[in-house]
Amino acid sequence: MPAESASSPVTRTRIAVIGGGITGLAAAQRLVSQSEKTQVTLFEASHRLGGIIRTEEADGFLMELGPDSFITNKPAGVQLCQEIGFADQLVSTEQRFRRSLVLRNGKPLPVPDGFQLMVPYNAWAVWNTPVLSWSGRLRLLAERFIPARTSSEDESLESFAIRRFGRQAFERLIQPLVSGIYTADPAKLSLKATLPRFLDMERSHGSVIRAARAPGKSGRAESGESDDRSLGSGARYGLFTTAARGLGSLVTAAEYWLKKSGRVTIRTGCEAAEIRPDSDAGTRWTLTLRSGPPEKFDAMIVTLPAYIAARLMRLPALHELAAELKGIEYASSAIVLSGHRLSDFAHPMDAFGLVIPSIERRRILAVSFSSRKFANRAPEGQVLLRTFVGGAMQPELLQRDDDAISAMVSEELRQIFGMSAEPMFSEVVRYNNAMPQYHVGHLARVARIAALQSTFPGLELAGNAFSGVGIPDSIASGRDAADRILQNGAT
Questions:
Q1: 13-52+247-328+439-487 — its CATH code?
Q2: Which of 31, 242, 250, 368 could form a disulfide with 386 if both were Cys (CB 3.0 to 4.6 A apart)?
Q3: In a 10 Å sphere around its CB, with 0-12 CB exposed, 13-18 middle and 19+ buried, how is residue 348 labelled?
Q4: CATH code given to domain 112-233
C-alpha cells in the first residue's frame, strides 16, 4: 500500500459499519486493507465486540459461550486469520475422540462410521449399525436406486432426506445431525439454502451414494477429505478448527489489528436508531444513534440480525426492503455449560458429543463434549459439556428460568449418561432470536432483498441471515459487502 505524504493528503471516504460481531469486524478489516482512502467507524450497541462469540476461563476450564469452532473448507475464516496474523493460533480437533453419538431408545450409540450428515461413506458400518432396524438399513442403502427428482423447485431438507434415504434414516440420523447445526425444523428448512451440495450430488450422479463414490466429483473428495475411516462420523470433524485460547481471542486479535491500522474508530455502547439516504440518489447516508447527533457517511454496511436491521429503516422508501428483512424468521436457544468429574459418569464420554432425534422426546437437543473435542478445555480427569436447549422445535422450554433449565439438563444427563453427582458448576447462556431460519423459499427472498438493496447506492447488508450461518459464512458476507462498497465507487 503506497505511503501517504504530508504534501499530498488523502481525502478519506467515511464508511459506517453497524454491528461489532465477526461480520462487522471482517467488513471493517477488508475495507481498510483494500483501500487507503477509507476511514471506518464501527458501531456496536453493547460494550463488547464479537457478538455471539465469547470465551470465558475459570478454574482450569476454557468455555465457549457461543460457537466453539469453524470449518476450514470455506476459506474466509482462515483467510481472515492469516491477514490479521492469527493463523498460528488455530488448532484441530482431537483425533482420538473423533466420532459422534446418537440417542436410540434412551441409550447413546455411535453414529455409523463414515456417516456424515447424509452421506454413508461406509456401507458396511451402516449395514451393522444398531441405530437403524434391518428395514431402515436396507432402505438407506437402496438410495442409489431411487430416481433423481427432476423438479428444480425448492425442497425442504425433510422431504429430500425421506425421499432419498427413507423415513427411519431421516428420523434416527439425518434430522438430529442437521438440527445440531441449524436448530431448525427440517420440514421447513430449505435444502437449497443450507446444504446444496446434496442436491448437486443427486443432479450430477442421480444418487448421493453414487456421487460420494465418484472421486473428484463431489462429496468428500470435493471437500478435500480423504476416504480414511479415521475421519469419524457425524460432521466432517477433520475440517474443523478453533483458537487455542478460544474464539474470543480471535475477536481480540481482530480488534487489535483494526486499532493498529489507524483508520478504524470503534465505538461500543452506541446503538443505531435509524438509517436514511440523504437524497433520492442515496449517495450519502445519515445514521441516527439512540443518543447524540446524527452522523453522515459516504456508505454503510449493516451487519445486524435482519429483524433489527429492518427497524432502522423508518423512511417510507425503505419499507419494502424492511418488510423482506422482517420475513426472515429466527429461532432462540440456550446453552448450558457445565463442568464435571469424568468419574461421575457411567458412560466413558469417548466422543465429541451426542445428538438427539426429536422422536426420542427428550428435553435437550444435543450435548457437545467440549474438552473431548479440543485439547486444554478442562483440567485432567474432568470434562466440559455444552448442552443445547430450545431451538425451533422446542421453544417452550426457554420460558423456564435459568435454575429450572439447569436442573432439567442435569436430569437428562443423569438418565442418558449415568451422571451420579451434580455438576461442579453450571451456567445458562441464552441466545434469543439469534439463529436465522432458512425456510423453503429463502434464496428467493435473499434475491429480492439484494434487488431492493441495489436501488440504494452505498448501502450494504451482511451477516448470517443471508448465505450461511457459520463463522466463515459470516466473515465472507462482511468481506463481500466491503468489496461491493469499494467496487461501486464509494472510495
A1: 3.50.50.60
A2: 368
A3: exposed
A4: 1.10.3110.10
